[in-house]
Specification:
Distance between the termini: 7 Å
Number of strands: 20
CATH architecture: 4-Layer Sandwich
Structural class: alpha+beta
CATH topology: Glutamine Phosphoribosylpyrophosphate, subunit 1, domain 1
Strand order of the largest sheet: 6-3-2-10-9-1-20
Largest sheet: 7 strands, antiparallel
CATH class: Alpha Beta
Shape: globular
CATH superfamily: Gamma-glutamyltranspeptidase, small (S) subunit
Radius of gyration: 21 Å
Length: 479
């Protein structure tokens, strides 16, 4: 018997594999992996953030554990003049982008509550055992990967807003270099308490209100924390050929469905026609929602266990608020400062309103087998998940489907990877005729997310971690 894991970092993937070897199921493994991501991928996933998990038990209907945040302010909103909310410009080289951070940018985190709920409803092992790999990793410190080092470099202007936050990741005030370790003993202690209680440690509530409450220039109130609970809901379902697909019930899942349906059918023989067909499908997804591209500080994990159970989970912390909960090593999210989540303007959503989310952890089943996939990448998630999903449904092997050059399009603009194009001049000519702006990436790019996916088809198990975002896999043979 075999289990497979794909994630955004070797330590994240290994945490899942360790729990599978110990007898855990797909949900136990993905929880262990998510907790390890708080250490190994700290700017992409955090106990101060949120996420979503799609689960398919071997003999049961799929379900979604939705632990994404809501708009704060249920207990009253602060005077705008006292909000700690500021713009930080990030330089990407070819372009700059402004992100909004500060204490008021944080919504109530739901990550720990969501993982605990998934464990209660769908896990097999005690949560106290499942937290073990992440606790050990936090005490030792995870070596910074090349991909993480680049994310740290890009987002360092946010992380130096607060001395404690910067010190959580670096001992010299500079972005951590590849290979460096920074132990997080306070986070290890907190995760041990989380495992023993199967719930968020009680002290976090007071810390959240003290550091991110209205009196501190933040947005959180007692009522917001009371309402920050996960929900277990049915997924959005669609059919693609012989495959039944379960994905996010929020807008991200709806748009994956819009694009995947547009991409269904025979690919065009001419490469330029096919690229244009994909671009038009992505534009249809944009028209169903709208929005502007962002960095997308998000990570994804996919697991299939030996019994055929599957889980797909996407975690996010936005770009981070720039402030940690004192004494914990947990940086809070900046969901209230993400333009893509607030198309009508900042602080215009009603308190308690669910924040829109593009994350789309996705599972698909057919007589052929089971597929789990998802991605980071902000509003590109809808495009890249739909493209990989459609390629696998059409019969591509998993590696080819993930590595295939990607396209993302909006109303008047299209972004595409040029690597491995057979006739790049013809492709660009066709796109320039249909879009006002065409943005070329010469190689596979971080911009296009990281589709970490696993597939069990016709008795063969595949796992592929997207190299665009440091993908790593583990295959566990059970005896």
């Amino acid at each position: 018997m075999t289990s497979v894991v794909a994630a955004g970092n070797p330590h994240t993937a290994e945490a899942a594999a360790a729990i599978l070897r110990a007898g855990g199921n797909a949900v136990d493994a993905i929880i262990a992996s998510g907790l390890a991501a708080f250490v190994a991928e700290p700017l992409l996933a955090s106990a101060g953030g949120a996420g979503m998990m799609t689960v398919a038990p071997p003999e049961d209907a799929p379900a979604v554990v939705d632990f994404f945040s809501a708009m704060p302010g249920l207990g009253g909103t602060p005077d705008p003049a006292t909000r700690d909310f500021r713009a930080v410009e990030i330089d990407f080289g070819a372009a700059t982008q402004v992100f909004h951070v500060g204490r008021a940018s944080a919504a109530a985190p739901v990550a720990l509550a969501g993982l605990a709920e998934a464990s209660r409803q769908f896990g097999r092992l005690p949560l106290a055992e499942v937290v073990g790999p992440a606790v050990a990793l936090a005490r030792e410190g995870a070596p910074v990967s090349e991909e993480s080092a680049e994310v740290f470099r890009l987002l360092w202007p946010i992380n130096v807003l607060d001395a404690e936050t910067a010190a959580t990741y670096s001992s010299d005030g500079a972005p951590p270099a590849p290979g460096t370790r920074h132990p997080m003993p306070a986070l290890a202690d907190l995760l041990e308490v989380f495992g023993a209680r199967a719930a968020a440690p009680p002290k976090l509530r007071g810390l959240l209100l003290d550091a991110f409450g209205v009196a501190a220039g933040g947005s959180l109130t007692e009522e917001d924390l009371d309402a920050a609970v996960p929900r277990v809901t049915p997924p959005r379902m669609l059919e693609l050929g012989r495959w039944r697909v379960a994905t996010s019930p929020r807008i991200g899942g709806r748009l994956v469905g819009v694009i995947a349906k547009r991409l269904a059918g025979e690919a065009a023989v001419d490469e330029a026609d096919e690229v244009l067909r994909v671009a038009e499908g992505c534009r249809a997804g944009h028209r169903a929602k709208g929005g502007a591209p962002g960095l997308g500080s998000t990570t994804h994990i996919s697991v299939i266990d030996a019994e055929g159970g599957a889980a797909s989970m996407t975690l996010t912390n936005g770009e981070g608020a720039g402030y940690c909960l004192p004494g914990t090593g947990i940086q809070l999210n900046n969901f209230c400062g993400e333009e893509d989540l607030h198309p009508g303007g900042f602080f215009t959503l009603a308190p308690g309103a669910p924040l829109p989310s593009m994350i789309a952890p996705t599972l698909a089943r057919s007589d052929e087998g089971v597929l789990a996939l998802g991605s980071g990448g902000a509003n590109r998630i809808r495009s890249v998940v739909a493209q990989v999903l459609q390629r696998v449904v059409a019969g591509d092997d998993l590696e080819s489907a993930v590595l295939a050059p990607r396209v993302h399009a909006e109303e008047d603009a299209v972004w595409l990877e040029m690597a491995e194009r057979r006739d790049p001049a013809a492709v660009l000519h066709r796109l320039h005729a249909a879009f006002e702006n065409v943005y070329e990436f010469p190689t596979r790019a971080f911009f296009f997310g990281g589709v970490h996916a696993v597939l069990a088809r016709h008795g063969r198990f595949e796992a592929f971690g997207d190299p665009r975002r440091g993908g790593a896999t583990r295959i566990v043979r059970h005896h």
